[in-house]
């Protein structure tokens, strides 16, 4: 519990309503979207950058450790306190201003606490959107801090590609505020300090304001479910779509039979789109165009059917079936996978990322390993094939020792065997600290910690290396 | 001149031919593509990463300052020594291996000394290319170190977007070698140390190997020269093309009348494409598709004509004329601009970058300022409108005091008045040191220097801040 003197001082800095001490009110801030909840000494909710600076400076001067938090939708335990009850949660959820849109510039400048849904609602009348597409509704500050990816990464990239400017508060005794670029698309007049804060997960400081590039919304969309010959055919199919659809290709999502079956069995609103039974593997492909249909133009649905039709007729037999239908219906299966898995049993999730050429071989080796050593777990993987990301999820026993052994086996095969990343798009947090300590090269840890130390004490949820004193 | 003991030691490290002392042989390494030449104590040309490490470690231990150099095509004096004759040139031009292409992965891993032309020649048979398009033929190491942009930035982005992995040698006593990622598209399992070296211009260390994402080559291209109503119409036209052409839009280059006229007058091979005289301003627009023409599909030329035709008929009158023709002919004018300027007189070049909404207003204010205070200079600007980049070039007197006053006036208006960058895509080097010292916020300088100091002593051609002891 926070000392009375700190309570009073922090309450004075953030005003009434800005300091949450009541355990019931704290709970939402203490409980991550995945993994067990922690305990906060208090939740502090500054409403302005100046208040963030004052709070952070106070915390550093008095040795109070804190964890910055946006919408608390992260999946790496990077935004919640540990169980000690000694850490503060520094919630940025009141930083909901500004929300400024510059249509001609195709940029938006928002407070770190602005939600993705709020930004997109404000952009919609202008025909614009931030195309980073994911299941949750995070804040823009959280998205920048974790370098969010998502299902349309292959076309639009990650947050790093969109962040054109940041305002940050450093975890030092002064709560130093830094403006790192102002929304220029091109700027090589200074070194890339800003890039450290993108994906930095609070280790370098707290993001208080973000300028992002936004895009024109699609005005035409077509989608299909493809059935490849086998898992080895997926990458050649992707290459064919990359050429034939070019940059109109906006999604290419792999779905395993086990993941699809669980969604179909456990999500009542979902019907089985496959007449002939669920295939071993499927790919959801999506094409979009930013323009309205033009006279004389082949429709996007027809283009998709042409491309798939040509592939179905080819001798190699890479593609064995293709289902066309309304876009929402095609995506419904993909969007139900996580819910289906959770409803079917306890999930051990891995957010792995590979060189995409390694995806099929890793899966083959992993399946053999799992069959031999972990037959009690069912592999229900799906992923973003084009960028090498795999949500390598397993459903099975909750016994901690067994789970730890499974985690160890999967990560060792992926990271040591294939040079994979153990956190493709979920960022760093307490949940990955053991993997970080074990798999990140010691030299990289040392330099990361030394660079972070230049900026201050950082977040209590991420420890970058042994050289760092926190 | 380099002491005999250092000569012997460095020659032993890099072998015969690896150390150049002869003034005639040194000249090409001492003379930048723009600005006056410097003088090197010697040129050291290691042939492997291990040799780079040995040389750099030796230099740091004995206090020899050095400047890393790729193809020496940079425009910021970042790869050549000053006039003191005390700095070594550390040329990476012998690091021409590996040159490995992974077609399925759409990546290439190359030595820092591999030229862009060599990479593209190796990629061409696979239908791939690195789409960063610029006038020179730099090395991949130099492109990464300066975060090169180019004429197709609006579609493909800069080097930062393409670099998936780096091997670097730090400027410390051990010549520490770091591998920063291995070619994953998504990796949030570590903080973004790699990003510091992209655009770091040698301040953090020396890039010895690069893994880049590459793209499918266009199989259809269409181009046109558009005549906008006036400079204010350019941005609305860009917005219309962004919607109507979507991601098939690969270039949108602005050309001023003065720049075009000088090219037409001074480049013998170039003919005037405008029947009715050179307009006040023109835009080169390019669309591309990665697929071969398909049956029933409207050709890309027709699409471009449709979009331009609709704009010509619109009431707003944003577009007053459009010229269609072979792609090479359309680009010939754009590609001749620099040559035309140089042939017409001495050039003062500025590589500015703006929020694109500010481009027209800056130009208007700059024209008024130039007419009032610098009527002896002719503005011959052209630029990458879509990403806010302007090559704000002026032709006029070479008198140093007058040039310095002009430079001061333009940069003050651009940077102080509009938050522009004084180096949009040319990186940092000795030529911009005064601008860096003056315009980069002191706090940003301090943190940049402190972060660089974590990694070592860095390049002698870039000084990031007063806190740094070099």
UniProtKB/TrEMBL annotation, chains A, B:
Alphabetically ordered keywords of this record: FAD, Flavoprotein, Oxidoreductase
PROSITE patterns per record: FAD_PCMH
Pfam families to which the protein is assigned, alphabetical: FAD-oxidase_C, FAD_binding_4
InterPro entries: FAD-bd_oxidored_4_C, FAD-bd_PCMH, FAD-bd_PCMH-like_sf, FAD-bd_PCMH_sub1, FAD-bd_PCMH_sub2, FAD-linked_Oxase-like_C, FAD-oxidored/transferase_4, Oxid_FAD_bind_N
Entries under Gene3D superfamilies matching the protein: 3.30.465.10, 3.30.70.2190, 3.30.70.2740, Uridine Diphospho-n-acetylenolpyruvylglucosamine Reductase, domain 2 (3.30.43.10)
FAD-binding PCMH-type domain location: 36-217
Source organism, top-level taxon: Bacteria
Cofactor: FAD
Entries under PANTHER family matching the protein: D-2-HYDROXYGLUTARATE DEHYDROGENASE, MITOCHONDRIAL (PTHR43716)
Annotated protein name in UniProt: FAD/FMN-containing dehydrogenase
Organism whose genome encodes this protein: Caulobacter rhizosphaerae
């Amino acid at each position: 519990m926070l000392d009375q003197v700190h309570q009073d001082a922090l309450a004075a800095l953030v005003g009434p309503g800005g300091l949450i001490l009541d355990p019931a009110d704290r709970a939402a801030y203490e409980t991550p979207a995945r993994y067990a909840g922690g305990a906060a000494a208090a939740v502090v909710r500054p409403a302005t950058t100046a208040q963030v600076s004052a709070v952070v400076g106070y915390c550093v001067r008095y040795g109070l450790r804190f964890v910055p938090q946006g919408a608390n939708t992260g999946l790496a335990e990077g935004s919640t306190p540990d169980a000690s009850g000694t850490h503060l949660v520094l919630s940025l959820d009141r930083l909901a201003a500004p929300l400024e849109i510059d249509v001609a510039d195709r940029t938006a400048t928002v407070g770190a606490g602005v939600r993705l849904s709020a930004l997109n609602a404000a952009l919609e009348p202008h025909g614009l959107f931030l195309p980073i597409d994911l299941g949750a509704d995070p804040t823009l500050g959280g998205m920048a801090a974790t370098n969010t990816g998502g299902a349309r990464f292959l076309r639009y990239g990650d947050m790093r590609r969109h962040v054109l400017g940041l305002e940050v508060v450093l975890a030092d005794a002064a709560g130093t505020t830094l403006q790192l670029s102002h929304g220029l698309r091109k700027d090589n007049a200074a070194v890339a300090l800003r890039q450290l804060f993108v994906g930095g997960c609070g280790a370098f400081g707290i993001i208080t304001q973000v300028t992002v590039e936004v895009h024109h919304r699609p005005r035409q969309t077509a989608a299909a479910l493809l059935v490849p010959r086998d898992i080895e055919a997926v990458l050649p199919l992707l290459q064919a779509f990359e050429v034939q659809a070019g940059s109109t290709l906006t999604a290419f999502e792999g779905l395993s039979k086990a993941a699809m079956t669980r969604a179909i069995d456990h999500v009542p609103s979902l019907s089985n789109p496959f007449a002939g039974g669920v295939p071993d593997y499927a790919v959801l492909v999506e094409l979009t165009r930013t323009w309205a249909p033009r006279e004389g133009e082949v429709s996007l649905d027809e283009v998709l059917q042409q491309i798939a039709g040509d592939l179905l007729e080819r001798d190699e037999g890479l593609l064995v079936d293709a289902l066309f239908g309304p876009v929402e219906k095609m995506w419904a299966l993909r969007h139900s996978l996580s819910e289906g898995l959770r409803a079917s049993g306890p999930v051990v999730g891995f957010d792995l990322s590979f060189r995409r050429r390694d995806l099929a071989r890793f899966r083959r080796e992993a399946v053999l390993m799992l069959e031999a050593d972990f037959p009690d777990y069912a592999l229900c993987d799906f992923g973003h094939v084009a960028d090498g990301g795999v949500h390598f999820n397993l459903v099975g026993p909750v016994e901690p020792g067994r789970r730890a052994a499974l985690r160890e086996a999967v990560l060792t095969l992926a990271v040591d065997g294939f040079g994979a990343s153990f956190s493709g798009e979920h960022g760093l947090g307490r949940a990955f600290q053991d993997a970080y300590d074990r798999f990140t090269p010691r030299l990289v840890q040392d330099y990361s910690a030394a660079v972070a130390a230049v900026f201050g004490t950082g977040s209590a949820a991420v420890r970058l290396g042994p050289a760092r004193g926190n």
